[in-house]
Design a protein that fits this description.
With 505 residues, the protein is α+β, with helices and mostly antiparallel strands. The protein is built from 16 helices and 23 strands. The strands form seven sheets. The chain has a seven-stranded mixed beta sheet with strand order 17-18-16-15-21-22-23. A six-stranded mixed beta sheet has the order 3-2-1-5-14-13, with helices on both faces. A hairpin with a 3-residue loop joins β15 and β16. α12 crosses α13. It starts with a strand and ends in a 7-residue tail after the last helix.
């Protein structure tokens, strides 16, 4: 009997394959980065073919490193960067254009037009999202309007759309030779095209973007006992494995953190930050700038919803210090450099490189470093970068409390930045609550594995998942309430300085 479950985690900067045992322990992994394509200011693209090649490579290498084969895997789950949009030809398998990444802002005019004429209110009501460059609908529209032959191919039924989960599942199950064209509600709920109540594509919303329904994948449960399809013997796994789990990366982290009861929340620190609060089967519509989204749907069980605060730039701000400014050689150095100073020296950094996401939703904002004096050093900027991660999370946590009435007592955290212990201490200080990191920090891949394993009975129920969760470390706040309030007030002033920088038509 197969003793493991595999998971592909296709992220914004890299793709990894991970293998887990029944205890939720990591057995093996392999990870590769892919190119970030930046054709002009505000544009961010990936090469879908490169992503598929990286996926194939990490699966093959991950199995080889552990000495396992497809026969050792009970199931395979997929998790992915959400909103990133791929349009390809179903007959040739070739993308019509590069993948347009969730951070990309080229669709700002499309988003602004939706809000000007009232269609934005319909999108908020039906899809739970504000019109924004973040989501897939506008990206599909841009491709149809700007890529030669795309509109005609879509009208003929030749061009199809998917986020990277759909793109990978299509390729894993045969591609142009019978590959399945499917997604799950967590990914579909990030398009501005799915009705949150029906969990189906909405014709009125499709009309807003002039997108043919035939382009869109079938929406199936996040944990799917029916099975989306099987991997091919000729594919990277070298044999048939049931594909039974599909979750957008942030919802996968919710499952990996076993935030499965209403009121439980987690914050994932990656390229951006994403805080989600489980609202159970209640569809809570935000009045405070958050997103209403699907948390997960397991088989034929009722849909579970969430409130989400999406922050565009957090971990990527640390990468910016490394790659663009060159003041650190690696992410780990941001901690040692920031520890050289006691505080930020009056410096605040708002990394609004792609505008501001939750709870502001201001595409006219751009990054700013404020409060500089001759006294300040690169250490103050490193400290301000870590604080920016934490203050943006405070913005979202406050909005969640307004919407839900839930005051966080503990915040579960995961993702790469959680290895930065100074940043996690600052997060506890800024929020005034305990911050708890699990033993398995890569909860996104774990959540995809859980969804896949539940579907085939590898895990019998969610109680078994809860039993697997163990804390690695926690941080308690040490700032006084006065210190916390003063720092946050200065942060809010800094945010104001970033607004109205770009003229949006």
């Amino acid at each position: 009997m197969a003793e493991y479950v595999g998971a592909v985690d296709q992220g914004t900067t890299s793709t990894r394959f991970m293998i887990f045992d029944h205890g939720g322990n990591e057995v093996g992994r392999h990870q590769l980065e892919h190119q970030q394509i930046l054709p002009r200011a505000g544009w961010v693209e990936h090469n879908p073919v490169e992503i598929w090649e990286r996926t194939s490579s990490v699966i093959q290498t991950g199995l080889n490193k552990t000495g396992l084969t497809h026969k050792d895997l009970a199931a395979l789950g997929i998790t992915n960067q959400r909103e990133t949009t791929v349009v390809w030809d179903r007959h040739t398998g070739r993308p019509l254009y590069n993948a347009i990444v969730w951070q990309d802002t080229r669709t700002d005019r499309i988003a602004s037009a939706l809000d000007r004429d009232g269609r934005g209110d319909v999108i908020r009501q039906k899809a739970g999202l504000p019109p924004a460059t973040y989501f897939s609908g506008g990206k599909i529209q841009w491709i149809l309007e700007n890529v030669d032959g795309a509109r005609e191919a879509a009208e003929r039924g030749d061009a199809i759309f998917g986020n990277t989960d759909t793109w990978l599942m299509w390729n894993l199950t045969g591609g142009r030779d019978g590959g399945v064209h499917v997604t799950d509600p967590t990914n579909a709920s990030r398009t501005m095209l799915m009705n949150l109540e029906t969990l189906d594509w909405d014709d009125e919303l499709l009309g807003f973007f002039d997108i043919p329904r035939s382009m869109l994948p079938e929406i199936m449960p996040s944990s799917c006992p029916e099975c989306y399809g099987h991997t091919l013997s000729s594919g990277p796994l070298g044999g048939e494995v049931p594909l039974t789990g599909d979750l957008g990366d942030q919802q996968a982290a919710m499952v990996g953190q076993v935030c499965l009861a209403p009121g439980e929340a987690k914050n994932t620190y990656g390229t951006g930050n994403f805080m989600l609060l489980n609202t159970g089967t209640d569809l809570v519509r935000s009045e405070a700038g958050l997103l209403t989204t699907v948390c997960y749907k397991f088989g034929d069980e009722p849909t579970v919803y969430a409130l989400e605060g999406s922050i565009a730039v957090t971990g990527s701000a640390v990468q910016w210090l490394r790659d663009q400014l060159g003041i650190i050689s690696g992410a780990a150095q941001s901690e040692s450099l920031a520890r050289q100073v006691e505080d930020n020296g009056g410096v605040y950094f708002v990394p609004a490189f792609s505008g501001l996401f939750a709870p502001y939703w201001r595409s006219d904002a751009r990054g700013a470093i404020v409060g500089l004096s001759r006294y300040n050093t690169n250490a103050h900027l490193a400290r301000a970068t870590l604080e920016a991660i934490c203050y943006q999370s405070r913005d979202v946590a406050d909005a969640m409390e307004k919407d839900s009435g839930v005051h966080l007592e503990v915040l579960k955290v995961d993702g790469g930045v959680t290895a930065n212990e100074l940043c996690m201490q600052i997060q506890a200080d800024v929020l005034g609550v305990q911050v708890s990191r699990p033993v398995v920090a890569e909860t996104t891949a774990l959540g995809a594995a859980y969804a896949a394993g539940l579907a085939v009975g590898f895990w019998k129920n969610t109680d078994e998942l809860r039993a697997n969760w163990n804390e690695s470390k926690h941080w308690d706040p040490v700032w006084s309430s006065e210190q916390r309030d003063a720092g946050y007030a200065q942060w809010k002033k800094a945010v104001e300085r970033t607004l109205d920088w770009v003229d949006v038509d």
